[in-house]
Structures are given as C-alpha cells and as structure tokens.
C-alpha cells in the first residue's frame, strides 16, 4: 500500500472539441454504413490507442496509404488533416470522403494557402514526421520550409527575407514556439504571421493547467499515447517543473515504484485521451492507496464544432 495519497486532477484535461468532433464523425459514419459498406480511416483518427481499438471493434479499417483503400469505398480523414495530393488521389479513386480534420488545423491550412497565393515563402514551425505537419506542408505545390528549433532558424536559407510568413503546428509547446517565433522575427524583421495564434485553445489550456498542477504534486501521470504530440508536450512541461512525470497509455503502464513516497499525485490527459482512461487510473490507484481525489480549479471549455454533413 502507498498509504494516504491525494490525487489532483488537472482541469481541463482529455478530449478537446476537435478530437470530440473527429470521434463522433467516425462513429456516425461507422453506424451509417454498418453491414453495407466498408469504412476506412486514413491513419489513426486521433493519436490514442484506446480510441483506435474501439473503432476496430466496430469494423473500421485503419490504413496508412490510399493504396490500401479500394475504389468507391468510404474514407474518413483523421483530425490531423491531409495534403492536397491525398485529396486529389481520393477524388481519382471515386472515394466517398468524410473530412474529420479539426477546424483549427483547417484554419492553418487556409493560412498557408493565403500566404502562398500572396507570394510569400511559408515557414512552418512544427515537428518533422507528425501527421498534422505532413498534411499542412502539403497544402501548396511550392516548398514549405520546416523549422523545429531556434537553431533551425539560424540555419535555414530563404529566397527572400522580405516575403516570408510563418505558421505553426497546433499542438506545440507554447513556450518553445514563442522562442522560435521570436528567433524568426529577430533574423527576419519583415516576416509576417497569423493574427491569431495557431496553437489551439485546448493545447494552451492543458499546458497551463499541467504547469500549475505540477507545482503542487510529487508525481505527474500524463495519460496519452507515445505518438500524441500534445500528450508529450504535457509530459515535457511537467518535467520542466522539476517533478517526476510519466507518460502512460492506461493504468496498465503504471509502475507502483514510481509512486513510493508520493503524497500528492497529479493526473492529466492529452487532448486525444478519453475520460474513461482517467477514471481507470484513479480506480487503480485506489486499490493501492487511501485516496482523496479533487479536481483543481481551471478553465472551463464549452467549445463544440459542428460535425461534417453525411450524404
């Protein structure tokens, strides 16, 4: 037994409006075509294994490329968005496409297209290999320059220092992104950017909450999959507060040795992690400690996004 332990739940945590929209969209599509047409999803609908596994049980087939999708099939695009090349190939194959791209990611896509049409060289601040980054950088035919760090800013070569624009991935660390943008503005004083910050409200709210919570606890458990960008940023931010922090997919990943001597345990969850995983972690801890559970004060989120219309 771990003894008397207080569990503090971050607020907000878990599903954001974009993830909720993507999950509900795929649920609607799977139910509509159940038993009549196969439903495919390009990549994980959201970066969470629990969510993906639940859809596999409903018969949804997750694929990595359009080559795996037969002509005329139903295809749902993930919350992370896709390139224009993927959209064009989907049209050529005659697919019934349902777009579950997060509206805040779509906003970034439109910014990239607008800057490109105005003759700007676009610089994208993000993490190489992330699905959102691949989709965003594929919105235009002209090359987009990827910047991942302040050091990258010093190394990039641009055709003109007077026609530059930047946009960012929606799930980055607020602090790290601010440093990169400041470096861009210092090197390229005439660079322009979006009027509103591209990092989404949910990412910002969860990062602020975990930083605040981390100052009150001995250990932080961040619930989210390893390929979830926003979950990894929560982990990094907790560690930056000099507290022990661990990223877990579920309670099954918890090593009780992590918690020995801990009197206060903080729990947060990435934007693609469902609340049931939080409750399961709390229940598991309750088997090994005398728990007192409370939710910290924080921002209430009441944002919802309209689902795409189904034919």
TrEMBL record:
Instruction: Supply the enzyme class, top level.
Output: oxidoreductase
Q: Which Gene3D superfamilies match?
A: 3.40.50.11270, 4-hydroxy-3-methylbut-2-enyl diphosphate reductase, catalytic domain
| Cofactor(s) of this protein | [4Fe-4S] cluster
Q: Which GO terms describe its biological process?
A: dimethylallyl diphosphate biosynthetic process; isopentenyl diphosphate biosynthetic process, methylerythritol 4-phosphate pathway
Q: What InterPro entries does UniProt report for this protein, alphabetically?
A: LytB/IspH
Whether Iron-sulfur counts among this entry's keywords is yes
GO MF terms here are: 4 iron, 4 sulfur cluster binding; 4-hydroxy-3-methylbut-2-enyl diphosphate reductase activity; metal ion binding
EC id? 1.17.7.4
Give one Pfam hit by family name.
Answer: LYTB
UniProt entry keywords in alphabetical sequence? 4Fe-4S, Iron, Iron-sulfur, Metal-binding
Name the protein family.
Belongs to the IspH family.
Q: Which PANTHER family match?
A: 4-HYDROXY-3-METHYLBUT-2-ENYL DIPHOSPHATE REDUCTASE (PTHR30426:SF0)
Q: What is this protein called?
A: 4-hydroxy-3-methylbut-2-enyl diphosphate reductase
> Which organism is the protein's source?
Hevea brasiliensis (Para rubber tree)
Upper lineage: Eukaryota, Viridiplantae, Streptophyta, Embryophyta, Tracheophyta
């Amino acid at each position: 037994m771990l003894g008397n332990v207080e569990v503090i739940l971050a607020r907000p945590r878990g599903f954001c409006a974009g993830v909720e929209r993507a999950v509900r969209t795929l649920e609607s599509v799977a139910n509509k075509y159940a038993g009549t047409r196969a439903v495919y999803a390009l990549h994980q609908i959201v970066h969470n294994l629990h969510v993906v596994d639940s859809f596999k049980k409903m018969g949804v087939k997750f694929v990595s490329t359009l080559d795996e999708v037969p002509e005329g099939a139903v295809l749902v695009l993930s919350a992370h968005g896709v390139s224009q090349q993927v959209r064009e190939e989907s049209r050529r194959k005659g697919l019934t496409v349902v777009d579950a791209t997060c509206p805040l990611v779509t906003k970034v896509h439109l910014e990239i297209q607008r800057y490109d049409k105005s003759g700007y060289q676009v610089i994208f601040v993000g993490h190489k290999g992330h699905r959102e980054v691949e989709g965003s950088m594929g919105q235009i035919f002209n090359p987009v320059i990827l910047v991942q760090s302040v050091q990258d800013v010093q190394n990039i070569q641009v055709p003109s220092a007077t026609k530059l624009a930047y946009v960012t991935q929606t799930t980055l660390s607020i602090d790290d992104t601010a440093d990169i943008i400041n470096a861009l503005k210092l090197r390229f004083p005439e660079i322009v950017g979006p009027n509103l910050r591209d990092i989404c409200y949910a990412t910002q709210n969860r990062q602020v909450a975990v930083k605040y919570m981390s100052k009150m606890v001995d250990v932080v458990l961040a619930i989210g999959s390893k390929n979830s960008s926003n979950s990894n940023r929560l982990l990094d931010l907790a560690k930056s507060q000099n507290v022990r922090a661990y990223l877990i997919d579920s309670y099954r990943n918890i090593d009780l040795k992590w918690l020995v001597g801990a009197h206060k345990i903080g729990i947060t969850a990435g934007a693609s992690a469902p609340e049931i995983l939080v409750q399961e972690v709390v229940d598991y801890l309750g088997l090994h400690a005398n728990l007192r559970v409370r939710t910290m004060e924080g921002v209430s989120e009441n944002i919802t996004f309209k689902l795409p219309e189904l034919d």
